[in-house]
Amino acid sequence: MTKKRILLVATGGTIASKEEGNGLSPALSGEELTRYVPEVADLATLDVKQAMNIDSTNMRPSDWLSVARTIMESYDDYDGFVVLHGTDTMAYSAAALSYLIQHSPKPIVLTGSQRPMASAFTDAKLNLYQSVLYATDDDARDVSIAFGGIVIAGTRARKQRTMSFNAFTSVNFPPLAYIRTDRIVRSAPFAHARKAEGSRGHTADRPVVHDKLDPRVFALKLTPGLDSRIFSALAPSYDAVILETFGIGGIPEQGETGPCFQDAIYSWVDSGRIAVMTTQVPEEGLDLGVYEVGRAYANHPGILRGADMTPEAIVAKTMWALGQTRDVAEVEHLFNCEINHDRSPFE
What we know:
Strand content: 15-25%
Helix content: 10-25%
Distance between the termini: 46 Å
Radius of gyration: 21 Å
Structural class: alpha/beta
Low-confidence stretches: 195-202
Largest sheet: 8 strands, mixed
Number of strands: 18
């Protein structure tokens, strides 16, 4: 049987890092990383492209676009793609790629490690091996993260632990699969993924590709006593604010000083900017209709609801939607479309 062709796109991160006197920093190339795991040669014919070699803390929206271009420039030549990436912003990058390369019939798998590849007690070798394994699977498609033996939809991942090898969790959505050494065990809803038509009936042989983002998006976490004048301070620099509310959607009536929050938020969106409401609680999502302190925002034009999406997906999706259009109604339409399992269709 002919082995599948997989392109490994290296971007740096802990997996590529070495200690050189000033703390860990990316030093190994993608080619060097593959030499630590010669077993991948049994899984696929592997080629490597070095998109960048940075700590993922330094990953920017322009770098997401660069990674997406690297993939799409070679899309027709390979059966799947593995992106080596630092863990700290991997969830953001996986979400961004989900919006930049939509409905991909070929798998785009992100992975990395909690310990460097050259470390004696690393998780990097197994993560790299299992990511290539998943990228060769006939039922794999779209953007995902394979890490610590679990496969997560690219829009549903969150880094939950800073040191443990099971760093990522799937938020408000079941994992796509588990990998037991060299065996893929799919979750029941995805056991026959390739036999289905795909997301909302999409069956094209190529993905829907986008190449524009608006990085002028600010995530604001509510804290008790926050001054509502923060919105006027942000207005010159940002086109959208993502407001992480209390609980299921609670927003204070009044800060310590300044206008009430409702006036500040209405003024923000009435100026043509976007506000996205989400919750700072990790699981189960937002419902603005439950409490009086949230209901006033439920149906105001320009106020979008993050539902049960992750904060990382909300940031990336807002940047993507604003990159496509400045029309508020169209931004809302794009934001509310379900893409790569990013939100439950209960609204």
